[in-house]
Amino acid sequence: MDEPVDGDRVEVQLFSQRLGALPAAAEAHEWVGRAIGREDVRLVWCPDPSARRLDPAHARAGDHTAFADGYPVTVATTGSLRQLNEWMVSDALERGDEAPDPLPMQRFRPNLVLDCDEPFAEDRWAGLTIGGVRMRNAKPNERCVMTTIDLTSLDTGKEPIRTLARYRRSGSKTLFATNLIPDSTGEIRVGDEVLAH
Length: 197
Hints:
InterPro entries: MoCF_Sase_C, Pyrv_Knase-like_insert_dom_sf. With about 200 residues, the protein is α+β, with helices and mostly antiparallel strands. The protein is built from 3 helices and 10 strands; from the N terminus they run ββαββαβββαβββ.
């Protein structure tokens, strides 16, 4: 997307933080509004990603992100999703319920999806290098109620939070995928070699 050209800096609120943003062009607002069936949307652009610092408990001085949920990159593996879907089926049958359809990876909104047979291998990685871009593992990704919304029907259910709470709980949090922080810049492409470290 091109840089915004349509207005003065505006203030946006992202969780508890107030951040500066620039509005995108009017055509972008209109396109997003048509795509989601609403007229009251505005698309904004982050002109200074360095303004939003990351939690120092899981980041280094100078680490930052723009308007991401919490960290710059989220990585999930196909093996982890396969295991989660298998748990959901076995638990449903154990309860006497009908086996659910498998959840798609899109429910978890990862930036990167790695083809990996071993479930939850990403928990143990200190970091990754993909296509020459080095990233470190900041922390496991804590999942919220947004993952329970069907992306097509917008219906809300109990999964995957119910199953994650049984198998992937840490305190009051349910975990799926991992947050990464880039230590270098570059391009990542589908099919790039992935080195875990």
